[in-house]
Design goal:
Length: about 120
């Protein structure tokens, strides 16, 4: 059973930074692509970032490119999202996701965490 548990959300001022973490438990998560989505109040979910199983490939949504950085530590089964230069429009619930392949396109994530709130104001 795959479990994804996010932490590190909270409040920040515009221009500030936060670091989200996601601890992945279950079977061999280090073999799979991990990523992040976010959901704005009253709207659908938006792709944020993804990182391949070995960390050799990353992908970012256009709205966060150059401001957010995804990384992973396979020894700790953890993926991170560093949020920098935050804007009020980054306010959302951030979800950790996992695919069933080492590399994944943005539609390939079938496992989702419970989400962590990020508020920028």
């Amino acid at each position: 059973q795959v479990q994804l548990v996010e932490s590190g959300g909270g409040s920040a001022q515009p221009g500030g930074s936060l670091r989200l973490s996601c601890a992945a438990s279950g079977t061999n998560n280090r073999a799979y692509c991990l990523g992040w989505f976010r959901q704005f109040p009253g709207k659908g979910r938006e792709f944020v970032a993804a990182i391949s199983a070995r960390g050799d490939f990353t992908d970012y949504g256009d709205s966060v490119k150059g401001r957010f950085t995804i990384s992973r530590d396979n020894a700790k089964n953890t993926v991170y999202l560093q949020l920098s230069s935050l804007k009020p429009e980054d306010t959302a619930v951030y979800y950790c996701v996992r695919s069933n392949s080492a590399y994944s396109d943005r539609d390939g994530f079938g496992y989702w965490g419970q989400g962590t709130q990020v508020t920028v104001s």
